[in-house]
Amino acid sequence: MATSLSPCPYCHSQQLHFVHHLLTHAVCCEHCGACGPSQREIDEAVHLWNLVAQLQQSQNPALERAG
Ligand SMILES: [Zn+2]
């Protein structure tokens, strides 16, 4: 597992866990309950979670200042 998870883009928590449905997996935040997109591949779910985190940070530069 070389891929690392970005912190939650909403609350900046690093307490993340995987939620597994029948055929899909998603990264969810334990702190605020936010979930990334569900994907069939765990790697893909991780990739999309990181993508959402990056987008949120770039769209809300105030988040970094607030942290
Ligand atoms: Zn969160």
What gyration radius follows from the Cα positions, in whole Å? 12 Å
Bound molecules: zinc ion
Helix content range? 25-40%
Shape: globular
Structural class: alpha+beta
Number of helices: 2
Number of strands: 2
Strand coverage percent: 5-15%
How do the helices and strands follow one another from N- to C-terminus?
Answer: EEHH
**Poorly predicted runs:** none
Strand order of the largest sheet: 1-2
Give me the secondary-structure topology.
Blueprint: E1 16-20, E2 25-29, H1 42-59, H2 61-66
Antiparallel strand pairs: 1-2
Bound molecules: zinc ion.
Provide a descriptive summary of the structure in words.
The protein has 67 residues and is an alpha+beta fold. It has two helices and two strands. Strand 1 (16-20) and strand 2 form a beta hairpin. It is globular and about 35 Å long. Zinc ion binds at residues 8, 10-11, 13, 29, 31-32, 34.
Describe, in short, the structure shown.
With 67 residues, the protein is of the alpha+beta class. It has two helices and two strands; from the N terminus they run E-E-H-H.
Keywords:
67 residues, alpha+beta, two-stranded antiparallel sheet, 2 helices
